[in-house]
Amino acid sequence: MDVMFTIIANICNVVEASAKHQDIFRKAQADNIIKGLKRGELKNRKGLNQEMGLRRTGDTRWSSHYHSMVNLILLYSSVIIAHESIDDTSSAERRGEVVMILQMMQTFEFAFSIHSMRNILRSLMSCL
What we know:
The chain is mainly alpha-helical. The protein has one domain (2-127). Helix content is 72%, strand content 0%. The protein is built from six helices and no strands. The protein has helices spanning 2-16, 19-39, 62-74, 76-84, 92-105, 108-127. It starts with a helix and ends with a helix. The model has no long low-confidence stretch (mean pLDDT 79).
């Protein structure tokens, strides 16, 4: 379980590493909302489709872990776009980290794990 939260923290670190990465992420998120509205997948009413951000997990609260996973699932395609757009001007170490994160995020195991953990944490929170 700690590995999943470490991966989520690394994903957040890459997006938050620079203003350029944050701008790319926000633009990808806005583009996805516009596409969803055009396809009729999203509704357009007051209070809907507001900008979301990735949330870091807290050390002690299960709800923090749960909300981090929910946001990552909802923003998955924007996160992928932001990671893919990190150019060669980044340090070799940063670029290597991004490549590893991208490879990991695009595996069945990652998708299965994050959805499973979200469901487990939701169940735990409903029991409290």
